Backbone:
């Protein structure tokens, strides 16, 4: 028997998944004390059941991670046969290597915690670096939201998928493979050229980067910037400006996760990006919303994966 649980990070997404699967969310209780400690209690019978916990580990990352750990321990103590952590947004994924001497490789630490606490499998959506998959010693699945997002973009563009009129753009060199994969799915061919923004990141100042050059054809085209995460928004804004300076007619963005830092919404709202398509992997607060933002639900993607477990 499968039991579906939600953490407190994004209950709306979990409720959508529950409705699509036509199964109730199992009962649990999360209590936060005044000293910032958290207590998780499982209030449903889970003995010998496969239990799925939906919990993005987005801001506040540490708080949401600890809640997930406590869910796992409580489920194990209650006799769950298997525990699957469905983490729509995987916090710390960008800290997957030692960029400067003396830095912790935080992604590795989080993965070891997940394995040690007793989770049997981890499913996530568009992990920042696919190479991180090799660190896991438990079952790991990296799902892609780009099919769902791409369909929404195509619908908005009235299904214009003419490569002579539309250009797929990677806003930095590290995202070239990601943009290529999106382009192949969007145009339904692997014979796709993408444009790339050359970017220099300041490793000593968080979320600071500078666009240096653009390689590829964007003149007189509608540009779709493809990325996995928005934080400050600076990378997208600079990339859009570069495309327009090089003669692009319009600029859109298609990004999976909106891990907004303070001021990101305002910066993006002032930009010349016509529409930004994002998923609901992270709960969007009212203060983070703005007219150009179009949120697309990934509940069908998650429900489909869970349905295969039933």
Residues:
């Amino acid at each position: 028997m499968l039991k579906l649980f939600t953490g407190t990070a994004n209950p709306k997404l979990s409720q959508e998944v529950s409705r699509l699967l036509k199964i109730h969310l199992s009962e649990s209780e999360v209590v936060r004390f005044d000293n910032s400690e958290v207590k998780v209690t499982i209030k449903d019978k889970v003995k010998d059941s496969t239990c799925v916990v939906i919990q993005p580990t987005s801001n506040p990352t540490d708080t949401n991670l600890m809640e997930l750990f406590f869910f796992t321990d409580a489920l194990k103590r209650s006799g769950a046969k298997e525990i699957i952590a469905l983490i729509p947004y995987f916090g710390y994924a960008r800290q997957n290597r030692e960029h400067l001497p003396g830095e912790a490789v935080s992604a590795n630490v989080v993965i070891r915690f997940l394995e040690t606490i007793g989770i049997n499998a981890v499913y996530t959506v568009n992990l920042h670096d696919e190479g991180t998959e090799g660190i896991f010693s438990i079952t790991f699945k990296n799902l892609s939201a780009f099919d769902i997002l791409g369909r929404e973009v195509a619908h908005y563009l009235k299904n214009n998928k003419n490569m002579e009129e539309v250009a797929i753009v990677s806003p930095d060199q590290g995202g070239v493979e990601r943009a290529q994969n999106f382009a192949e799915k969007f145009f339904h061919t692997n014979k796709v050229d993408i444009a790339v923004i050359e970017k220099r990141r300041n490793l000593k100042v968080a979320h600071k980067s500078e666009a240096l050059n653009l390689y590829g054809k964007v003149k007189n085209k509608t540009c779709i910037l493809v990325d996995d995460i928005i934080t400050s928004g600076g990378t997208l804004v600079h990339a859009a400006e570069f495309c327009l300076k090089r003669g692009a007619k319009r600029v859109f963005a298609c990004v999976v996760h909106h891990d907004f830092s303070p001021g990101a919404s305002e910066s993006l709202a002032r930009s010349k990006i016509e529409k930004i398509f994002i998923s609901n992997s992270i709960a969007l607060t009212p203060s983070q919303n703005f007219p150009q933002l179009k949120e697309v639900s990934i509940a069908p993607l998650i429900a489909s994966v869970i349905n295969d477990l039933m």
Notes: DSSP finds eight helices and 14 strands in the chain. The chain has a mean pLDDT of 92. The two ends are 7 Å apart (CA to CA). Residues 61-77 form the longest helix (17 residues).
